[in-house]
């Protein structure tokens, strides 16, 4: 292969990778990690690390996130609050006080919700679960405090960590380099005092905060889709199933028949962990009704704080939604045709593993625009569907339940 051919292949790969990471419905979605130095110690500093999920509909589900990096020098972690390193590493050179972790490449995980109060800080200890920004902005963050040693005691001697990684169930995240930014301002719980990250080694105080941005790519997470859509309607007895092999083809070694409780995927023709079914229940002159059902075929995974995004031109006139919470995804746009759905807390915000309880559903009532095309030509079916931020495989338009000539408005 010639040099020019290698160049073309490389450019094609780069362009495809970037396009796979771009989401037209959530162009600014990312995980932003901020590292704020709040005080200095004799051999290092104490920092608050905050992770914000700015993705509108992609949550970080159980068992949660793992944050990693590579120390620039020979830093150690003396202590942590709100999180912990998974491995202490070799701390044999220390006598007396032993660091929390001496790993060159530490891996940090969140603490569980029942953690003792004196080991917590604000926004920690949720088992690594972070809600999406569109669902609950107040729960779309996670934080911990870290005391770093052998790091230098001024902003001129501290070296920023490198090679940040953010790992979540399903993978797919790529992190950029750490960059120094303006310091974060912290507001006390009573709202009466503001502090900010700073250095006390010099006067005037020198501030130190850096930021890392991690973006998601479905292609990096998995070349195969993870969900599919099936369709049906009251006016047609046939059901349009998920396309065969939507998420891979069936093999006896990677699935089991229904009812066999093993930690693998249930055998289906589509082989997707999640199936979203859209059923048109009825059609009237002014309103029409839809039932949405989400089914989990994964024997080894509970989807915590799941989200469902549906694009349909009539979703801007949803008048009633049962069981699920409904939010317009882009409420400020005149052509708001995309809706965000998620479960109600402690009722159906966890989609259980495959089995009798492995599904959740909702009924929608939508007001019709008299100028729209009733049920003809597939108008009643969604254009795009996302589950937990990943696009679902849609049936072809030709396979949608057709409208018989005798069918009309009720």
UniProtKB/TrEMBL annotation:
Write the signal peptide boundaries.
1-21
The COBRA C-terminal domain is annotated at 226-257, 260-396
Q: Report any Pfam family annotated for this entry.
A: COBRA
Q: Where in the cell is it found?
A: Cell membrane
Topology in the lipid bilayer is annotated as:
Lipid-anchor; GPI-anchor
Q: Which GO terms describe its biological process?
A: cellulose microfibril organization; plant-type cell wall cellulose biosynthetic process
Assigned GO CC terms: plasma membrane; side of membrane
Keyword annotations for this protein, in alphabetical order, are:
Glycoprotein, GPI-anchor, Lipoprotein, Membrane, Signal
* Transcription regulation keyword on record: no
The organism's place on the tree of life at top rank: Eukaryota
Q: Which PANTHER family match?
A: COBRA-LIKE PROTEIN, PROTEIN COBRA
The record's similarity note reads: Belongs to the COBRA family.
| UniProt protein name | COBRA-like protein
Q: In which organism is this protein found?
A: Solanum lycopersicum (Tomato)
